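Entry for the shared binder. Reason: the reviewer on the internal report wants the predicted structure included alongside the sequence.
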Amino acid sequence: MKHTIIDASQFELTDKVVAIKRVTKTVKGGRNMRFTALVVVGDGNGHVGAGLGKAVEIPEAIRKGKEDAMKHLVKIALDENNSITHDFIGKYGSANVLLKKAPEGTGIIAGGPARVVCELAGIKNIRTKSLGSNNKQNVVLATITGLSQLKSPEEVAKSRGKSVEEVMA
């Protein structure tokens, strides 16, 4: 997967906090509490990213997570009904997310973390199924990995040396 850097400043991004965890480190003097925030950002038009922020205070962790997500934006190939171009399985760790193309009017059929990614990416019609691990961080990253590996019909036609009409038939 080729990763191109996308400038986040040229998009009107919205963000959503998927998970906040409290983590504890036991030291000689007691326990040190910190927070980890998983944040997803997207422009609703084919760009989405996820980031992790860690800090002593929750708002600071969310801010850092948002900054990290903006650094990891990916472009997603959408078709004319704001669905994905073909079915795919996204994998990250032991989480697998099945992404299925859906006709106009289906809506977003997805659970929890995968739904947030699809909404912020601007996908209007999709069916997903989370398989394997249900860890929120891994499900979000599996969904984004799967979406970023989708190919448009033009890319498939070019790689096969055929016309778009031949590929779509």
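Summary line for the report: Helices lie at 58-71, 112-121, 136-148, 153-160, 164-168.
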